[in-house]
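Please review this one.

:::
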Amino acid sequence: YIDPNWSAFGAYRTTKMRESTDRGVLGIRYRLPYLFRTTWSADTEGDARLDIEKELQITPRWALSANFQYDTNTDGEWGVALGYTWNREFGIVAHEHSDHGIGIGLSFQF
């Protein structure tokens, strides 16, 4: 955490996929105008990633979010989600992803 608009992170990403290897990740997060959230990161294998996300609270119970990810290893991916909040802790989410298709799930907020 640097200030309300900037933060930095470091992580170690593990995988069980045959073509991928475990790697370290360093990055920064920056909040753009209009509350777009961006994440810029690079890993120890030399791949870079850019994530851009925006969430819109349509009503007190309904929210719409969209994101785009560009990775030098896998190119671009996008997703759109619509969420409904039942109460303070639980909700339901429907999500469309460019690579994985449509999904529905429960959300837990804390």
The chain is about 0% helix and 65% strand. The longest strand covers residues 75-85. The radius of gyration is 16 Å.
